Description:
single chain; Serine protease; globular; six-stranded antiparallel barrel; hydrolase; Chloro_Bact_Ser_Proteases; protease; Peptidase_S1_PA; mainly beta; 1 helix
Amino acid sequence: xxxxxxxxxxxxxxxxxxxxxxxxxxxxxxxxxxxxxxxxxxxxxxxxxxxxxxxxxxxxxxxxxxxxxxxxxxxxxxxxxxxxxxxxxxxxxxxxxxxxxxxxxxxxxxxxxxxxxxxxxxxxxxxxxxxxxxxxxxxxxxxxxxxxxxxxxxxxxxxxxxxxx
Length: 165
């Protein structure tokens, strides 16, 4: 299995230190099951701030893995509901709801600007980077990447790299 994330999330992680955490959410009164698996970075593109991780799984799994379906980032509309999933401020497996606030934004944080980003008011704080931005049907439409802020705090505009960039 492979996971797409941001390059800035994995660039300083050593090859022996990369871990991917899965959580099943629990059912009824059951506590959620948590599983930590080793991963390996198999591809990066610093210019688009993307990376691909191969997740290693052997034997019986505690938490089943289900790939998320891809949505159509090219067909997004301003005002459309979205959900940002991540780990803001170390609070694992968090979700925030918002809307598409703008399309085709430019994110200028590296050696070269990233064109076509999705602007959202869903909270994308430190720790949300690399998580999926989902449409209302649960399809991945982007990768949460950055918050643009004038104050240096977590108040600002969230940006995600679209899946069809």
